[in-house]
Fold:
Amino acid sequence: MNNSEAVAETLARLCIAAQDAFPQAFVELEGWLIPRDYPAFLVRMLEDAKLCEQFPFDALKFLNKIIGDNTKSLDESLAACLDAIEKANPRTTADPKMRRLRDLQRRLTC
Structure:
């Protein structure tokens, strides 16, 4: 992991650790976040913090930012997060970010 990847990972963790201030932290740090080759740990952290239910649109944007088209692997945590986001706000189902992430999830977790 190079320095910019390490910084991005730390800032992504900081967004999640902000808990109730997650939306504000994400707005402030979004420009520093980059797609990860292996984002499963961050996705699990987001799932465990229950931020997908609490802030569905922000969580969707966060996932879209850290999961790129070149992501190499994902686990069941992404499906759980996406399900929680859709349950919290069904309008997210039609969002292009949701469709892209669902496609990646199906492709990389099968």
Remarks:
- The radius of gyration is 13 Å.
- Helices lie at 3-17, 22-29, 40-48, 51-54, 56-66, 76-88, 96-109.
- The longest helix spans residues 3-17.
